[in-house]
Please model this.
Amino acid sequence: MATYKDFELAVALLSGGTNTVIYDDVGLPSIMVRFDKKLISELIDGGSNGPHPAFLVEGVEVPAFYCSKYQNIVYKGRAYSLPLQDPAAYYIDASDRGSAPSTGVNFDNSKIWCEAKGPGWHLMTNAEWAAIALWCRKNGFMPRGNNNYGKDHSAQWEQGIETYGGGDPYRTYRVATGSGPVSWSHDGTPAGIWDLNGNVTEWVGGYRTVDGEIQIIPDNIAAKQIEQTANSTRWKAILPDGSLVDPGAEGTLKWDYLSKPSGSSGFQFQLVTTITNMPDDDNPYGQNSFAALTAAGVMVPEILKALALFPADSGDHGGDYIYMRNRGERLARRGGYWRYGASAGVFDLGGATSRSYVDSLGFRSAYIPGI
Model:
C-alpha cells in the first residue's frame, strides 16, 4: 500500500529534489516549490545588493520561502496545493469549507484558509509573487498559461484539462491545476510553479491602494499572519525617495488618471504624488500596459520596481497589464485569468477591486518555517 513517504519520494524524484511535500497542522500534504533567497541585484539590473523584500521578515533575513506549486483548493477550511484539481474560484462546496465564514473566494477568506494550516502558512504575498516574476524575466522565461479559454493565446495548441466551462459547451474556463504543458510552469520544467499566467487570477497580500495612494506592508511582514484589514496600522505609504510613512502623509506615491474619466471604460494612468483626476463614481477603472507605465515628474524608488509595481527598465514585460481604481480601498490580484489573453502573465496586476470581490478569483498559499 502506498504511503505518504512514497508520495514524498515520488515528488522529490520527479522534481529533481526541488519540490517538497509539506504537511499542515492536521497532517495533510501540499506540494511546494522552494524559492531561495535572492538579492535585488540578482533580479534587477543595477539593483542594490540587499535581499529582495520577499526574504526579509521584520528585519530578519530568511533563506527561502516555499510557494504552492499549484493554485489552491480548499478542503475543510484549509488551502492545499495538489495537482489535477479544479482550483478554488468563485465558490467552494459548502460541505468542504469547514469553518470558513462564507463560500466566496474573496481576499479575507483566502487569507483565512491559508493561515488555518498552522504557523508559517500564509496567503502568498505580493513581495513573493514579485520575486518570482522578476526571476522569470531575468532568466528569459515568461511562462504561458490558460489565458484564452483553456489555451494560451500565443500557442493555441497548448491546453489544459477542463474542469469548468461555465455552462458554455464550446469554451473552457478553468483547467485542472498543473495539467498544461511545461511551458505553463515558471521555469519551463516539471519542477516549476504552475499557472502563474491565467487560469484564475490570484489574491496576494501586502499591497493595496486607498483613494489611489500606494500602500504596502513593509518587506514580507505580511507573511506573518498579521492583520491586513482596512484599518490595520501595518499599512505604509511610500515617498519618492523610497522611505515609508503613514498613509495620508504629504507627497506619497499614488496612481492617477491622465485626465478625469467617466463611464465604465478603462483609462490610462500614471504615477503621481497628487490626485487630480478622481472620478465621480466607481465605474471607471485604469488600465495600462505594465511596460508602458510612466511617472509624472516623480522619481520612482527601487522598492516599486522590486515589488513589480513599476517596470525596472523599458524592455518587454510580456504584454502584461496593470489595473487600478483611485476611489476607495483596492487590493491586489495577480496573473490574470482564462480570458485575459496577452494581458495575462506574471506582471499582470489587478488593482481595481475591493477585498470582497469574488469573480474568477483564486489564490495560493506560501510557507516560511520558523516565523
